[in-house]
UniProtKB/TrEMBL annotation:
Matching Gene3D superfamilies: Immunoglobulins
InterPro entries referenced in this protein's UniProt entry, alphabetically: FN3_sf, Ig-like_fold
The organism's place on the tree of life at top rank: Bacteria
Protein name listed in UniProt: Fibronectin type-III domain-containing protein
């Protein structure tokens, strides 16, 4: 009986000493600049730039935040590491940007990415270039399943502050960058089907055109078929 008691006590002590597994940082929820918007700068920072305030919600199990802001005209990326949830950055006027926040902690090797939001830092422009189309499906780097007709649906989302998108041009191929014209569709279309074969890596992109002839090009997305 005494031996059994010692065994039970040992199990209880081991359970009490066992530490919980480290938790990965959660995703940060973005606040401002708002998605698909023209931001309101804090103040001018010279003739060609202004100060923009970035804000996001604190994420659980997070010790550090990395703010990434990308100039969509030049693809230049500004990166800042911080423990807070507010940063002010000097950005070019009259320019579209994307931004996101990446969360990390010292207990895991996991880096969790937030959503990516697009916005304009206003300038003297009277019209806006459409934002690059957002690739919805297939998700970047994923495996896509063909339907019974050996086709996959390509889906995206487009947005223009002026609301004058006239159409999208979709390029698709098994080569990177994709150069084969798949389809030209009007502004109210955001999905096309394409024939594919199994076990093949495909690349695609979407070019958005507005009523003034302005164009923007999405990032190249890839997926593999099964």
């Amino acid at each position: 009986m005494r031996i059994l008691t010692f065994i039970v006590m040992g199990i209880v002590l081991l359970s009490a000493c066992k530490k919980d597994s480290p938790k990965a940082p959660e995703k940060a929820d973005l606040i401002a600049p708002a998605k698909n918007s023209e931001c309101t700068p804090v103040q001018d920072d010279g003739a060609n730039s202004s100060l923009v305030r970035f804000n996001w919600k604190a994420a659980d199990h997070t010790e550090n935040y990395e703010l990434r802001v990308k100039n969509l005209n030049t693809d230049a990326v500004f990166s800042k590491s911080t423990t807070g949830t507010v940063e002010i950055v000097s950005l070019d006027k009259g320019t579209p940007f994307s931004w996101q926040v990446i969360t990390t902690n010292s207990e895991t090797n996991t880096a969790t990415e937030s959503d990516v939001w697009l916005f304009y830092n206003p300038g003297s422009q009277t019209d806006h270039v459409p934002f690059p189309a957002e690739i919805i499906s297939p998700v970047q780097g994923s495996t896509a399943f063909k339907d019974i007709n050996n086709k996959v649906s390509l889906k995206w989302s487009g947005f223009d502050l002026d609301g004058d998108i006239v159409g999208f041009t979709v390029y698709f191929s098994a080569e990177n960058p994709p150069t084969d014209l798949l389809s030209e569709v009007k502004a109210n279309v955001d999905e096309v089907e394409v024939g594919v074969v199994s076990n093949t890596l495909y690349f695609w992109k979407v070019v958005t055109t507005d009523g003034k002839g302005n164009i923007s090009t999405s990032d190249i997305s890839e997926f593999k078929t099964r």
